Amino acid sequence: MYSALVEPAVAGAATAAHTVLTTGLHSPFATSSAGPATSNHFNSLLASVQGQGVQGLVGLKSGDLQGVISALSPQQQLAMSQQLMGSKVTVENQGGQLVQGIASQLQLVNGTPVFNVAGHNYNLGNLMSVLQTSAVA
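RESULT FIELD:
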């Protein structure tokens, strides 16, 4: 009985998260037809994320990943955090060390999505790479 209630809710949340994440991303770089190469590079990264959702983040360099994250609205950051649950990620801890683990236990702290990796809480600003997603299409 519970699975009949939970499964549609989970599917609906996943669809909503994908929709929020893949629409309305804006480049932090000024864009024009004669704009710098970094603008074109960033726009192609955004297009990848728009087309693939969180799967489009796999393999991005940390600087590119942070550029994508900074272009997201708070709602899109929450959607990205939801999609990261169960994914293998690398985060940077307060000491500057890289920690790998599975993203879990998403919560909102003062309106900011916070997730757990290897027993410690991190936000998207700490995310250095997405190694493998738990993509459930």
